[in-house]
Amino acid sequence: MRLTIFIAALCAVCAQGQVMISGNEYKVDLTTGTPKFIPGAKPDTLTILNFSSFPPAVSHVEAVSNSVIGPPSNIAITPDESIALVADSIQQDPANPAKYVPATKIRVIDLKANPPAVIQEIESGKQPSGMSISRDGKFALVANRAEGTVSLLGIDGKSVSIKHTLEVCKPEQNVADVAISPDGRMALASVCDGGYLALLHVRGDKVTLDPRKISSCGKPYRVAITPDGVLGVTAGSGQGLPDTDAITVVDLSQDPPRSTDYIPIGAGPESLEISPDGKLIAAVLIGGSNMPKGTPFHEKEGKLVILARRGKTFEVTQVLATGAIPEGVAFSPDGKHIVVGCHPSQKLWAYDVDGETVREAKLRIDLPGMPSSLRIADK
């Protein structure tokens, strides 16, 4: 498959070690409160941001299928930024063009090629969604949402292959995302409709399921682990608007690991990310911004919530406005900026970070589609 660069040479971007990737789509409408498939939509794209300077240099890549259905972590980048993995979670239902069914592909993109190219397609489980790559770049874990499994993908340079697939839960319990500890020996998987975090152990090319289930507040979705490996965090929605939801904090330093705090943040958390230094969390709330105008819970904007680390927990320090239906959120690799993907407006909103203080940067980055995922490499 040939990919087209619209702005700037991506090889120069990758050389800087400052890469952020946004997955953009056209095929799912979120503005009616329920996701709806758009028949005949344009092909999905990727956007690459180079944060070696600010504002970042921007380039776009055509025809890489991805989706907003699933946590905004269906893209993962190796620590050396040589390849990216992109999960293709859903596809049009052949029997009903207005609906979607699980897809099964993960695509490997060579970020060092000029232009970048899809160099491999991997057949994964049903609806591959949230994924993470180990800090040594040797393997990835992906949550197969419609199958209840997590797959371990071995990474050998630019070659990727599935080594092992583990049943984590029943398909209807919906395993959505997975985060790998810095030492690569443990992982947390969010079992969304099951209402808990699964604890996984990684040894070589095999992943095993711990019998312990870790409690969470609401239905855990995006999950992450601090760079020091001490804390896991996840955010989950409960029964819906307008109830306040919370971040669950898991102390991974205890044996066994356990939930130790719940932090209220507001309604409808979609994603969260931890700063590169582990001192901040940025979480985005959809709230009622995906509800039709005139309905009781409609809100014009989403929210960006900032939490600062306090020992083995975090506290809310700021709540800022952001665009409607915020999906992905990410810190720039140097931790000096936060970017939020606002789905219907087809824009990225940027914020400046100064210690624990975050301010809107008054920068909007136009995208060739609706932002559905947003990631940098874990290093």
Please outline what is shown here.
The strands form eight sheets. The protein has a four-stranded antiparallel β-sheet with strand order 5-4-1-30. Strands 6-7-8-9 form a four-stranded antiparallel β-sheet, with no helix packed on it. A four-stranded antiparallel β-sheet has the order 10-11-12-13, with no helix packed on it.
Question: How would you explain this protein's 3D organization?
Answer:
- The two termini are 29 Å apart.
- Strands 5-4-1-30 form a four-stranded antiparallel beta sheet. The protein has a four-stranded antiparallel beta sheet with strand order 6-7-8-9, with no helix packed on it. Strands 10-11-12-13 form a four-stranded antiparallel beta sheet, with no helix packed on it.
- It has 379 residues and is an all-beta fold.
- The N terminus is likely disordered.
- It has a single domain, classed as 7 Propeller (Methylamine Dehydrogenase, Chain H).
- It is built from one helix and 30 strands.
- Strand 20 and strand 21 form a beta hairpin.
- 2% of the residues lie in helices and 57% in strands.
What attributes characterize this protein structure?
2% helix; disordered N terminus; four-stranded antiparallel β-sheet; mainly beta; 379 residues; single chain; globular; Methylamine Dehydrogenase, Chain H
